[in-house]
Design goal:
The protein is an alpha+beta fold. The protein has 2 domains: 94 residues, Up-down Bundle (Monooxygenase); 72 residues, no CATH class. It has 4 helices and 6 strands. Helix 1 packs parallel to helix 4 and helix 3 runs antiparallel to helix 4.
């Protein structure tokens, strides 16, 4: 191997492994809203064309390292594209699961405090309740969630029975 082959091998490995931080971030955060998939599709197309060229050189008994490192780069970019599509599909399905609702607290004196919240329609958990500070001398009479003008009682998650569909959980 010549010094130029070593440069190509080292540079190719650096380029191929340069996608690992992006892959790790996608796997960790499951978020890709700031990624432009067209960038990765363009990279895959360009690397794919270079892969054909590298294969031609390899068949003629030269540039085997170029073919190997280019193959790794192509695999990494294709994997990122598949991850982005998977994360976006997962995110879209989660948006259908989380619904906007209203969280209401009733007091014995008749007062009611209503604030926005979200509910997970699959697990029936109440999340992201907007706090509202209310100073009253009354005892709380109950809590409930309003979803599409339908009232659902809320209980603490530690007090629930398994698979109880009649309550929402805080």
């Amino acid at each position: 191997m010549t010094v130029y082959d070593w440069f190509q091998l080292t540079g190719g490995v650096i380029l191929a492994l340069g996608y690992l931080p992006q892959i790790r971030q996608l796997l960790t955060t499951r978020s890709c809203k700031d990624l432009n998939i067209n960038t990765y599709i363009s990279l895959a197309a360009g690397i794919g064309m270079m892969e054909i060229y590298a294969y031609n050189l390899w068949v003629k008994h030269s540039a085997a390292m170029f073919f190997a490192t280019n193959t790794i780069s192509l695999a990494m970019v294709v994997y990122i594209i598949l991850l982005v599509l998977s994360v976006r599909r997962e995110s879209e399905s989660n948006r259908k699961i989380i619904k906007d609702a209203l969280y209401a607290t009733k007091y014995i004196d008749g007062s009611v405090i209503i604030t926005p919240c979200n509910v997970n329609m699959r697990t029936k958990e109440v999340i992201d309740i907007v706090p509202c500070f209310y100073d009253c001398n009354s005892t709380m009479g109950g809590e409930f969630v309003l979803i599409n003008d339908q009232e659902y009682p809320v209980i603490q998650s530690g007090d629930r029975e398994p698979f109880d569909d009649n309550f929402w959980y805080e």
